[in-house]
Amino acid sequence: MISQKARYALRALLYLAVRGSDGPVQAAEIAAHEHIPRKFLEAILAELKKPGIVKSHRGRHGGYTLGRPAKAISFADVLRVTDGPLALSPCVSVMAYQKCEDCYDEALCVIRKALLAARDSTAKILEARDLATAAAQLRKGGAL
Predict the structure, then answer these.
(1) Residue 104 to residue 57: CA distance in whole angstroms
(2) What pairs with residue 63 in β-bridges?
(3) What are the CA-CA distances from residue 138 to residues 19, 71, 141, 142 (Å)?
(4) pLDDT means over runs of 10, the chain (144 residues)
(5) Do residues 110 and 118 touch, judged by C-beta distance below 8 A?
(6) pTM for the complete prediction?
């Protein structure tokens, strides 16, 4: 299951994507509209700023914007920042690979093969879903 932090991050980013290029949006506005605790949202946005998913803008009319085009931000990008690797086990992780301590042979491990297939399927779906597509669905009134 994804964390509440990841859900809030996706909702905040979708709000920014739907707003488009209207300029920076203050965290308080996002928090109020998306029903996210403001302090928690600010921590999430700070975390999303590090890899460039969002940019912060200072000043009276400051706030947050997407750090790159919505089309270039996948759900997988966001989940990796908020929740870590998509893999169910370190032995199948692309980003944080680590051999299992009790593994006798990765090439023969049927558990690893199943988890690898799950990771590949999950990653394929989440990497294909980007903020621009989801925002367009929201604008049309469709469900994500």
Answers:
(1) 52
(2) 57
(3) 11, 15, 5, 5
(4) 96 93 90 96 97 92 94 97 90 83 85 92 96 91 60
(5) no
(6) 0.87
